[in-house]
Amino acid sequence: MEVLSKNDGILTNAEVLDLLQERLKTRDPQAYFEPLENRDYIESKTVQHLRDAMKIAGNKKDPTPDMCVRFFKEMSRLAHLPATEPNSLRKAQLTQVELLELCNHMPTAEVELFLLVADGYTRCTEEQVAVILGAVRTCFELPVDE
Description:
By secondary structure, this protein is mainly α. It has helices at about 15-25, 35-55, 65-80, 95-105, 110-115, 120-125, 125-140. The chain has a single domain (about 10-145), classed as Growth Hormone, Chain: A (Up-down Bundle). It has seven helices and no strands. The radius of gyration is 18 Å and the shape is elongated. It starts with 12 loop residues before the first helix and ends in a 7-residue tail after the last helix. The mean pLDDT is about 85.
């Protein structure tokens, strides 16, 4: 993968993980350059942190950029439904940053969702919260709480 522009927008944790893993795979383990030792360490620790953070969400496997795209498409579809529809998120008016946080943290409980969405308890009804949590579980293939 080649970086075409230095700022193409915001990246999800899954996209950053994918980019770093690809870089680590293409790196020659025999080539050792002392000035790059810190970079290699930081990249490997970042990959480890991202994997650990995603495991906390209950994932059996790492989320992929495709899962993130599916999540954003689903949330866009739900946000554009007429306000009279039961699954509509039109009135919640989630921002891009809030959607990114939902994608990165993959909340599975109401309390986690309310930590990520500003004034979520007033902006979202119980039905909307259930729809958002359902979309997160479906798109990221998370296990259903029993």
